[in-house]
# Entry
Amino acid sequence: MKNKALVLFSGGQDSTTCLYWAIDKFGSASVSAVAFDYGQRHKIELVSAKKIAKMAGVKLDILPISTFSALGGNALTGSEKVKTGNAKKTGLPNTFVPGRNLIFLTFAAAHAYTVGIHDLVTGVSEADYSGYPDCRKGTIKALETSLSLGMDYKFKIHTPLINLSKKKTVLLAKKLNAFPALALSHTCYNGKRPPCGKCPACILRKKGFDEAGLIDPIG
Ligand code: ZN
# Structure
């Protein structure tokens, strides 16, 4: 029997590709997904997540985390505008939500523990991104160890996109027949549909499709 896997899912391009990667590797009957309602300004993400999970035929649980918006200080959960470029003080863009991936993976692991799943899948990547420190291999490996020790339960955190550029992520999605799902995915930091085309997330998404020589099914 194949292992069961839990995909950390946001309804975005990368986690959608990861969902299809997990279905390919573990089989659709063994895959479920978890998304977080963390006070993101654009609930459209969760709408996309629900539609894609339905299309893929996987169970989706949406868990609430209200603390990020109480912390504020960034453009995704606070009232700041999305800026291009990095802040001088931190060297990171103002779309960085401190601790987000660590908390998401911890809650996902707690959820996985309760339902007997050992394999977690997340779409973090070191390549072509904004340098978020919680998307690095070292962080993920250390967290995998911490979670396994802290729950006395063996977790494996799969990061199929960790070394992939946006171009390669697009090519992987194509190979996995994830394009119909990508048409429903959401990337735009400004919460626009159709996407604004101007924010850093839209620009990065377009660059990936352009370099892959493929047309984004989102239109
Ligand atoms: Zn945008």
About this structure: The chain has one domain: 5-212.
